[in-house]
Amino acid sequence: LMMLYFVVDTTDEDFKKEIPSMPGQYQLSLKQLEKTVGEAVDAGLRSLMLFGIPKHKDAIASEAYAPNGIVQRAIRMLKAKWPELQVVTDVCLCEYTSHGHCGILKEGDTCGEVVNDPTLELLAKTALSHVEAGADMVAPSDMMDGRILAIRETLDEAGYVNTPIMSYAVKYASAFYGPFRAAAGSAPSFGDRKGYQMDPHNRKEALKECALDEAEGADILMVKPALSYLDVIRECSDAFDLPMCAYSVSGEYAMIKAAAINGWIDEERVVLEALLGIRRAGAKLILTYYAEEALKKGWVR
Ligand code: PBG
């Protein structure tokens, strides 16, 4: 199980703000991240993924690849404190662009049509900056075509030949990302992501996306979201030898948590049954906002 954390670039060391649509999940300052992760590590957490919320956003997502950006600083802090902890980073530009899209737009664009190839360069630069800061693995979530190869080449050229890439290979344009976008402040200010994320109707496209990413050099393939796409996880894990990861996204967490808070379900049993279903579908790694709580409460080891 991998846990997800949101780290905010702020001078307020005590900053810890609960995400209203994700009770129990927080936006954290660097200091608060250290404290939170420390407790999670004590409970047995071994792997996490980081999202950054920058101070400043612009059209070219400058802070995504700034050597001293918030994610880069968080990686250095975490790896210095817990060298054994696997620190993975989400590589995307949407939290860093002023318009909230996952890539750069043509000048004057009003519909959110991302320009694919110029975006690759920035994604590769972002991934490299994470690895230079000490990230154990990078996970591109932008869904641009060709980004795995672009990142692989950039990492190899810089000598990071052994750093793996976990590809968000199969990422559907899903309504289940709603709470995340509020958490990361990354909702597009106009247009939508249907130009680069996948149509939920499409099953075969999932196999095609996996094949492309495998050929480009991905080390782990991911399907996202998880619970509404168990058939896709199964099919991709049967068809490919690479380890499969599934991302149980913010909306999945929010639904279970809301029902649990209301006393409508047995939270522990529902969480474990959902995780088990994802595992049974073929996922070897699961990204879940429940990872920390499940460890702390002894639901999993
Ligand atoms: C960034 C990104 C998103 C998620 C992970 N990385 C949002 C999106 O594509 O809109 C969603 C995660 C979640 O809902 O938990 N591109």
Portion in helices: 25-40%
Q: What compounds sit in this structure?
A: ligand PBG
Morphology call: globular
**Could you give a short account of the major beta sheet?**
6 strands, mixed
Strand order of the largest sheet: 2-3-1-4-5-6
Question: Mean pLDDT, nearest integer?
Answer: 96
Secondary structure tally, helices: 10
- Rg (CA only): 18 Å
Q: How many β-strand stretches? A: 10
State the low-pLDDT regions, or none: none
Can you put this structure into words, describing what you see?
- The structure is a single chain.
- The protein has 301 residues and is α/β, with parallel strands linked by helices.
- The protein contains ten helices and ten strands.
- It has helices at residues 30-42, 70-81, 116-133, 147-157, 178-184, 204-216, 230-239, 250-261, 267-280, 291-296, and strands spanning 3-8, 16-18, 26-28, 47-53, 86-91, 137-140, 166-171, 220-224, 244-248, 285-288.
- A six-stranded mixed β-sheet has the order 2-3-1-4-5-6. A four-stranded parallel β-sheet has the order 7-8-9-10.
- The relative contact order is 0.14.
- The model has no long low-confidence stretch (mean pLDDT 96).
- Bound molecules: ligand PBG.
- Ligand PBG is lined by residues 90, 92, 94, 102, 141, 177, 180-181, 193, 249-250.
